[in-house]
Amino acid sequence: MPLRMRWRHYKAILVGPAMLILGVPYALLAFAALLRDELQLSTKHLIDILPVLSLATWAAIGFAVLLIIALEGSFRVHCEDHASADAANLDVSKRAEEIRRTLSSELDQSKGELEKERSLKERAEQELKRRLIEPIVHLEPEGGMVSCTDAKCNFVLTLVNTGLEDVERLRVFITYFVAQRISGSVVLKRVGGISSEPSIVVPELRSKQSELIHLSFSELLPIMTEVGTNGGVPYVFGVKIHTKLRRDADGKDFDLVRCYGISLGGEALYSPTGANLPESLKASIIQLDDAIKHINSADHWSSVVTEIASTPGGGIVRKYR
Asked: Domains in the chain, ordered, with CATH?
Protein backbone atom coordinates (compact mmCIF):
# COMPACT_ATOMS: atom_id res chain seq x y z
CA MET A 1 0.00 0.00 0.00
CA PRO A 2 2.79 2.63 0.72
CA LEU A 3 4.54 1.81 -2.63
CA ARG A 4 1.32 2.26 -4.54
CA MET A 5 0.65 5.51 -2.79
CA ARG A 6 4.19 6.68 -3.53
CA TRP A 7 3.83 5.72 -7.18
CA ARG A 8 0.60 7.70 -7.46
CA HIS A 9 2.27 10.69 -5.86
CA TYR A 10 5.36 10.55 -8.09
CA LYS A 11 3.19 10.01 -11.16
CA ALA A 12 1.06 13.04 -10.29
CA ILE A 13 4.23 15.14 -10.01
CA LEU A 14 6.14 13.91 -13.11
CA VAL A 15 3.36 13.35 -15.59
CA GLY A 16 2.14 16.71 -16.72
CA PRO A 17 2.62 19.59 -19.17
CA ALA A 18 6.30 20.04 -18.23
CA MET A 19 7.03 16.43 -19.15
CA LEU A 20 5.42 16.91 -22.59
CA ILE A 21 7.17 20.22 -23.23
CA LEU A 22 10.68 19.41 -21.90
CA GLY A 23 11.01 15.79 -20.99
CA VAL A 24 9.69 14.07 -24.11
CA PRO A 25 11.51 16.29 -26.67
CA TYR A 26 14.79 15.98 -24.76
CA ALA A 27 14.46 12.22 -24.51
CA LEU A 28 13.84 11.96 -28.28
CA LEU A 29 16.78 14.26 -29.01
CA ALA A 30 19.11 12.26 -26.75
CA PHE A 31 17.93 8.97 -28.28
CA ALA A 32 18.53 10.24 -31.81
CA ALA A 33 22.03 11.38 -30.89
CA LEU A 34 22.72 8.00 -29.34
CA LEU A 35 21.69 6.20 -32.55
CA ARG A 36 23.86 8.46 -34.62
CA ASP A 37 26.91 7.95 -32.50
CA GLU A 38 26.45 4.24 -32.15
CA LEU A 39 25.70 3.53 -35.80
CA GLN A 40 28.32 5.98 -37.12
CA LEU A 41 25.81 7.57 -39.44
CA SER A 42 27.15 10.32 -41.70
CA THR A 43 24.57 11.69 -43.99
CA LYS A 44 23.42 15.10 -44.90
CA HIS A 45 20.19 14.73 -42.97
CA LEU A 46 18.67 16.50 -40.02
CA ILE A 47 20.36 14.07 -37.66
CA ASP A 48 23.72 15.46 -38.57
CA ILE A 49 22.94 18.82 -37.00
CA LEU A 50 22.40 17.26 -33.56
CA PRO A 51 25.00 18.38 -31.03
CA VAL A 52 27.80 16.03 -30.24
CA LEU A 53 27.98 15.69 -26.48
CA SER A 54 29.42 13.26 -24.08
CA LEU A 55 27.29 10.79 -22.20
CA ALA A 56 27.91 12.62 -18.90
CA THR A 57 26.77 15.89 -20.43
CA TRP A 58 23.61 14.30 -21.80
CA ALA A 59 22.94 12.73 -18.35
CA ALA A 60 23.54 16.01 -16.50
CA ILE A 61 21.22 17.87 -18.81
CA GLY A 62 18.66 15.07 -18.36
CA PHE A 63 18.84 15.30 -14.59
CA ALA A 64 18.39 19.08 -14.81
CA VAL A 65 15.36 18.65 -17.07
CA LEU A 66 13.98 16.03 -14.67
CA LEU A 67 14.51 18.39 -11.71
CA ILE A 68 12.67 21.18 -13.53
CA ILE A 69 9.82 18.78 -14.35
CA ALA A 70 9.69 17.62 -10.70
CA LEU A 71 9.62 21.15 -9.33
CA GLU A 72 6.97 22.24 -11.80
CA GLY A 73 4.92 19.14 -11.12
CA SER A 74 5.21 19.63 -7.35
CA PHE A 75 4.00 23.21 -7.69
CA ARG A 76 1.15 22.05 -9.92
CA VAL A 77 0.09 19.34 -7.44
CA HIS A 78 0.31 21.88 -4.62
CA CYS A 79 -1.97 24.27 -6.50
CA GLU A 80 -4.39 21.43 -7.32
CA ASP A 81 -4.50 20.39 -3.64
CA HIS A 82 -5.22 23.98 -2.62
CA ALA A 83 -7.93 24.23 -5.25
CA SER A 84 -9.44 20.95 -4.06
CA ALA A 85 -9.29 22.13 -0.45
CA ASP A 86 -10.89 25.45 -1.39
CA ALA A 87 -13.59 23.61 -3.30
CA ALA A 88 -14.14 21.28 -0.35
CA ASN A 89 -14.31 24.24 2.05
CA LEU A 90 -16.74 25.97 -0.26
CA ASP A 91 -18.84 22.83 -0.42
CA VAL A 92 -18.72 22.52 3.37
CA SER A 93 -19.69 26.19 3.72
CA LYS A 94 -22.60 25.70 1.34
CA ARG A 95 -23.74 22.62 3.20
CA ALA A 96 -23.32 24.43 6.53
CA GLU A 97 -25.36 27.34 5.19
CA GLU A 98 -28.06 24.94 3.99
CA ILE A 99 -28.09 23.21 7.38
CA ARG A 100 -28.23 26.59 9.13
CA ARG A 101 -31.15 27.67 6.98
CA THR A 102 -32.90 24.37 7.59
CA LEU A 103 -32.34 24.58 11.34
CA SER A 104 -33.41 28.23 11.36
CA SER A 105 -36.58 27.31 9.51
CA GLU A 106 -37.26 24.43 11.89
CA LEU A 107 -36.50 26.71 14.86
CA ASP A 108 -38.91 29.35 13.59
CA GLN A 109 -41.49 26.65 13.07
CA SER A 110 -40.88 25.31 16.60
CA LYS A 111 -41.16 28.83 18.02
CA GLY A 112 -44.43 29.25 16.20
CA GLU A 113 -45.69 25.97 17.60
CA LEU A 114 -44.52 26.92 21.10
CA GLU A 115 -46.24 30.30 20.84
CA LYS A 116 -49.37 28.58 19.64
CA GLU A 117 -49.17 26.04 22.47
CA ARG A 118 -48.55 28.83 25.01
CA SER A 119 -51.50 30.77 23.64
CA LEU A 120 -53.73 27.72 23.85
CA LYS A 121 -52.51 27.07 27.41
CA GLU A 122 -53.22 30.65 28.44
CA ARG A 123 -56.68 30.42 26.89
CA ALA A 124 -57.31 27.16 28.71
CA GLU A 125 -56.17 28.70 32.02
CA GLN A 126 -58.32 31.77 31.44
CA GLU A 127 -61.27 29.57 30.53
CA LEU A 128 -60.64 27.45 33.63
CA LYS A 129 -60.48 30.55 35.84
CA ARG A 130 -63.62 31.87 34.21
CA ARG A 131 -65.47 28.66 34.89
CA LEU A 132 -64.13 28.26 38.45
CA ILE A 133 -66.26 29.65 41.21
CA GLU A 134 -65.38 30.76 44.70
CA PRO A 135 -65.32 28.00 47.33
CA ILE A 136 -68.20 28.24 49.78
CA VAL A 137 -67.04 26.97 53.16
CA HIS A 138 -69.01 27.67 56.34
CA LEU A 139 -68.32 27.22 60.01
CA GLU A 140 -71.57 26.12 61.58
CA PRO A 141 -73.61 27.04 63.45
CA GLU A 142 -73.61 30.46 61.85
CA GLY A 143 -76.19 31.83 64.26
CA GLY A 144 -77.58 31.17 67.69
CA MET A 145 -75.86 29.57 70.62
CA VAL A 146 -73.78 26.41 71.11
CA SER A 147 -73.65 24.71 74.47
CA CYS A 148 -70.59 22.82 75.70
CA THR A 149 -70.66 19.05 75.50
CA ASP A 150 -69.40 18.59 79.06
CA ALA A 151 -68.27 20.56 82.09
CA LYS A 152 -64.74 21.15 80.67
CA CYS A 153 -65.64 23.81 78.12
CA ASN A 154 -65.48 21.43 75.16
CA PHE A 155 -67.40 22.45 72.04
CA VAL A 156 -67.95 20.94 68.62
CA LEU A 157 -68.35 23.07 65.51
CA THR A 158 -68.70 21.91 61.92
CA LEU A 159 -66.69 23.06 58.93
CA VAL A 160 -68.92 22.52 55.89
CA ASN A 161 -68.10 22.82 52.18
CA THR A 162 -71.46 23.74 50.67
CA GLY A 163 -69.98 24.91 47.34
CA LEU A 164 -69.14 23.04 44.15
CA GLU A 165 -65.36 23.37 44.38
CA ASP A 166 -63.21 20.91 46.31
CA VAL A 167 -60.72 22.47 48.73
CA GLU A 168 -57.53 21.14 50.28
CA ARG A 169 -54.86 21.92 52.89
CA LEU A 170 -57.26 23.44 55.39
CA ARG A 171 -55.32 24.91 58.32
CA VAL A 172 -57.39 26.13 61.27
CA PHE A 173 -55.83 28.70 63.60
CA ILE A 174 -57.72 29.19 66.89
CA THR A 175 -57.11 32.31 69.00
CA TYR A 176 -58.91 33.05 72.29
CA PHE A 177 -59.15 36.66 73.38
CA VAL A 178 -60.62 39.10 75.86
CA ALA A 179 -62.03 42.24 74.20
CA GLN A 180 -61.98 45.37 76.36
CA ARG A 181 -63.08 48.90 75.69
CA ILE A 182 -60.27 51.13 76.97
CA SER A 183 -60.57 54.91 76.56
CA GLY A 184 -63.17 54.50 73.84
CA SER A 185 -61.05 52.04 71.81
CA VAL A 186 -61.47 48.28 71.57
CA VAL A 187 -58.41 46.23 72.57
CA LEU A 188 -58.24 42.51 71.85
CA LYS A 189 -55.98 40.76 74.36
CA ARG A 190 -54.71 37.44 73.11
CA VAL A 191 -54.88 34.60 75.63
CA GLY A 192 -52.68 31.56 75.16
CA GLY A 193 -49.83 33.10 73.19
CA ILE A 194 -49.06 33.18 69.48
CA SER A 195 -48.38 30.05 67.43
CA SER A 196 -47.37 29.82 63.77
CA GLU A 197 -48.61 26.23 63.65
CA PRO A 198 -52.29 25.55 62.98
CA SER A 199 -54.40 24.07 65.75
CA ILE A 200 -56.20 21.75 63.32
CA VAL A 201 -55.19 20.48 59.88
CA VAL A 202 -57.65 18.98 57.41
CA PRO A 203 -55.99 17.50 54.28
CA GLU A 204 -59.02 18.01 52.02
CA LEU A 205 -62.69 18.84 52.12
CA ARG A 206 -64.64 17.87 49.05
CA SER A 207 -67.83 19.45 47.88
CA LYS A 208 -70.82 18.77 50.17
CA GLN A 209 -68.59 17.24 52.85
CA SER A 210 -68.01 18.42 56.41
CA GLU A 211 -65.40 18.15 59.16
CA LEU A 212 -65.82 18.49 62.93
CA ILE A 213 -63.84 21.20 64.73
CA HIS A 214 -63.27 20.65 68.45
CA LEU A 215 -62.68 23.56 70.82
CA SER A 216 -61.48 23.25 74.40
CA PHE A 217 -60.41 26.18 76.59
CA SER A 218 -61.01 25.02 80.16
CA GLU A 219 -57.38 25.81 81.06
CA LEU A 220 -57.58 29.32 79.59
CA LEU A 221 -60.94 30.31 81.07
CA PRO A 222 -59.55 31.28 84.52
CA ILE A 223 -56.97 33.54 82.87
CA MET A 224 -59.63 35.12 80.66
CA THR A 225 -61.81 35.73 83.71
CA GLU A 226 -58.96 37.34 85.65
CA VAL A 227 -57.99 39.57 82.70
CA GLY A 228 -61.59 40.70 82.36
CA THR A 229 -62.18 41.44 86.02
CA ASN A 230 -58.81 43.11 86.62
CA GLY A 231 -59.30 45.53 83.76
CA GLY A 232 -62.10 47.47 85.37
CA VAL A 233 -63.68 48.14 81.94
CA PRO A 234 -66.42 46.46 79.90
CA TYR A 235 -65.19 43.25 78.38
CA VAL A 236 -66.30 40.17 76.49
CA PHE A 237 -64.71 36.77 75.86
CA GLY A 238 -64.33 35.49 72.35
CA VAL A 239 -62.58 33.09 70.00
CA LYS A 240 -61.29 33.83 66.53
CA ILE A 241 -61.24 30.89 64.11
CA HIS A 242 -59.13 31.60 61.04
CA THR A 243 -59.24 28.90 58.35
CA LYS A 244 -56.78 28.99 55.46
CA LEU A 245 -57.69 26.79 52.53
CA ARG A 246 -56.73 26.17 48.92
CA ARG A 247 -58.96 25.55 45.93
CA ASP A 248 -58.08 22.14 44.52
CA ALA A 249 -58.66 23.06 40.85
CA ASP A 250 -56.03 25.79 40.54
CA GLY A 251 -54.27 26.07 43.91
CA LYS A 252 -55.64 29.53 44.73
CA ASP A 253 -55.63 30.37 48.45
CA PHE A 254 -58.64 31.61 50.39
CA ASP A 255 -59.30 32.66 53.98
CA LEU A 256 -62.31 32.17 56.21
CA VAL A 257 -62.49 34.10 59.49
CA ARG A 258 -65.26 33.52 62.01
CA CYS A 259 -65.68 34.87 65.50
CA TYR A 260 -67.74 33.52 68.39
CA GLY A 261 -68.43 35.06 71.76
CA ILE A 262 -67.85 33.02 74.90
CA SER A 263 -70.17 33.33 77.84
CA LEU A 264 -68.54 34.49 81.06
CA GLY A 265 -68.92 31.04 82.63
CA GLY A 266 -67.55 29.33 79.51
CA GLU A 267 -70.65 27.18 79.12
CA ALA A 268 -71.78 28.57 75.74
CA LEU A 269 -70.60 30.03 72.44
CA TYR A 270 -72.72 32.52 70.57
CA SER A 271 -72.49 34.37 67.27
CA PRO A 272 -73.16 38.08 66.75
CA THR A 273 -76.05 37.25 64.44
CA GLY A 274 -77.68 34.94 66.93
CA ALA A 275 -81.33 35.23 67.84
CA ASN A 276 -83.33 34.22 70.91
CA LEU A 277 -80.31 34.43 73.18
CA PRO A 278 -80.60 34.63 76.98
CA GLU A 279 -80.81 38.12 78.48
CA SER A 280 -77.46 37.58 80.21
CA LEU A 281 -75.75 37.42 76.79
CA LYS A 282 -77.53 40.20 74.96
CA ALA A 283 -75.52 42.90 76.71
CA SER A 284 -72.30 41.34 75.45
CA ILE A 285 -73.39 41.02 71.81
CA ILE A 286 -72.91 44.72 71.16
CA GLN A 287 -69.37 44.51 72.51
CA LEU A 288 -68.71 41.39 70.43
CA ASP A 289 -69.81 43.30 67.34
CA ASP A 290 -67.30 46.00 68.24
CA ALA A 291 -64.59 43.36 68.62
CA ILE A 292 -65.37 41.79 65.25
CA LYS A 293 -64.90 45.13 63.51
CA HIS A 294 -61.24 45.04 64.54
CA ILE A 295 -60.65 41.29 64.46
CA ASN A 296 -58.29 41.53 61.45
CA SER A 297 -56.52 44.71 62.52
CA ALA A 298 -53.11 44.10 64.10
CA ASP A 299 -53.20 47.55 65.74
CA HIS A 300 -56.02 46.45 68.07
CA TRP A 301 -54.36 43.23 69.22
CA SER A 302 -52.13 42.84 72.26
CA SER A 303 -51.01 40.08 74.60
CA VAL A 304 -52.06 39.44 78.16
CA VAL A 305 -49.64 40.96 80.67
CA THR A 306 -48.48 38.56 83.39
CA GLU A 307 -47.37 40.09 86.69
CA ILE A 308 -45.43 37.85 89.07
CA ALA A 309 -45.20 38.76 92.75
CA SER A 310 -44.01 36.96 95.85
CA THR A 311 -46.15 36.38 98.92
CA PRO A 312 -44.99 36.88 102.55
CA GLY A 313 -44.83 33.13 102.89
CA GLY A 314 -42.31 32.86 100.02
CA GLY A 315 -44.81 31.77 97.39
CA ILE A 316 -45.34 33.17 93.92
CA VAL A 317 -48.53 34.83 92.72
CA ARG A 318 -49.30 35.44 89.05
CA LYS A 319 -51.65 38.21 88.09
CA TYR A 320 -53.02 38.61 84.59
CA ARG A 321 -54.12 41.90 83.06
From this structure: 2-108 (no CATH), 137-320 (2.60.40)
